[in-house]
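To: structure subgroup
Subject: Chain for Friday's discussion

All,

I'm putting the inputs and outputs inline so they're searchable in the archive.
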Amino acid sequence: MVTTASIIANTMHDIGVTVVPDVDFAFQPLLSTRTGEPVAVEALARPKSGGIYDLLRAAGKAGKLIETDISLACRAVLAAGEGDLPLHLNLVAATATTPDDLMRFLRPTLAQTGRQPRDLVLEITPPFSRVHRAELVNGLARLRHEGYRLAFDSVGDGDLPLSLLVDVRPDLVKIDAHLINGLPDDTASLAVVESLAQYCTRTGTRLAAVGVEAEDQLLCLNRLGVRLAQGNLLCGASEGNGISLPLPRPVAEIIELSTHTGGVPSQVPLVADFLRPATTMPEYATAEEVRDTLAEQPSVNGVVLVDSEGRPVYSVERSRFLIAVTGPYGHALNAKKPAARHADSPRVIHADATGLQLLEMVSDADWERSGEDVIVVDADEVCIGVVRLTEVVRGVAEAKIEQAAALNPLTRLPGSESVDREIDRRIERLEMFVVAWLDVDSFKAVNDTVGFAAGDDLIRSIGRALTDAARELPGTRVAHVGGDDFLIVADLDEIAALASRLVDRPWMTEGMPVSVSLASLVCGVRSVSSYREASRLLAPLKKQAKAVHGSSWVLGRPGTDRVEILRGRPGPAPAPPRHALHVAG
């Protein structure tokens, strides 16, 4: 019989590494902060004397760093054995520059455990400064081509160049525990985590937090959109290779609370936010084998039958399958025959799809299969997990309800709370920004002259112009405060373009010309301390903008009484005619 020890010895012999016998492995789960479900496990080497960094440092001094690292990776795979969850392995950056050596010794260990390259996530760790950049990028590309998934570990506390995130586009980024320790009170830590969350949202990269120790950290991460986390707080009891049993009660309550009340989301949740591990078997599996698997895993909804590349071929739903094969003659008739005879064609969706896209994919006829799992695949159509339709329906519904509750029914713009939060965020990040107030001059005269319906049409038109501007200007956020009042926060280099869209265009409703006033306050770093203060300083500027006749734009700054009139003519505005409002200039 081929043993784990003999596999290790054989694979390491050619590279002259004496495998250190006193290294054990712990397996820490990586959990979804939305569902609390484990989505992967990380293998952590635990030398019986000293730490893992001491072992690697000694190997480096002996000129055997890469060989020892490969040895540890192989031992971790063998120690983990078979499993449905992806396995995360830590590798120093230098090892990734020798992908052929790494893969040569990983192959027999993967064969021993029945795993495929796609089942491994290679977490690349510092130091990065000691490796040739081109060799690292090429090595990572080679590993990805072979099916391995890539992650960067210790982001924020090592020597990882941020430009590598651009060149490599990892599948996962892990935020170092040092940054997590500063949450939620340290504004600098908060700003860095927010920046990484924005990068991951825009690139489709998954983001994980390491070293979560406190409940307020977990709440903060959930609100920031960090969907994966690991740490002592999340471990609870465990069995096997780090598979968590029920979470500690306070943590479970936080996850449940955050799922329901985590604030107005910036977008509809992604399918990946609801990802659960899939139970997969070969497409040629017999009914008896599938039945045994379902009996061993009572919590799963079904089994995904996959081809040799891991692509889903059939979907076996638990209830219908068991009814078919466990009747009086079911076992005798079906046990040795392919389980595919009682399977359905798989419902498949890509991991980067939104929850809404998932719901659109499911036709009315499929709703009788609402209890089944939907299979999630990557860009190569390989199964990476499943989602439960009922959870996605709930998540999308909650997101839409929260968004709708915050929108003005006339313009579908959010209220002042959204700009309030955005201003406070920019103050915390020490950013320069502009806050502006836009309203219609003599709006009461519009309603009195051409009617409320025409006034509503005008407000809708202004709302559409602001929505279009916010869509095209990435640093601009807009809100409808009420009536004819709109609130705006924008980057300094965007305010002129915004003013051109709002002030320079002619406004008209029912043939009646209308002018608007734009008051803006340029807020330098530390010039205002809060949204409330910015609002107080903006109020007199609004009055000065209204005093300029014609469509106007005035600009001021905290700490000075100087006001620049950038549009309109100073001086008292003439009274509007009986049936029209006057537009100057």
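Points worth raising on Friday:
The chain has a mean pLDDT of 82.
Residues 504 and 551 are 8 Å apart (CA to CA).

D.
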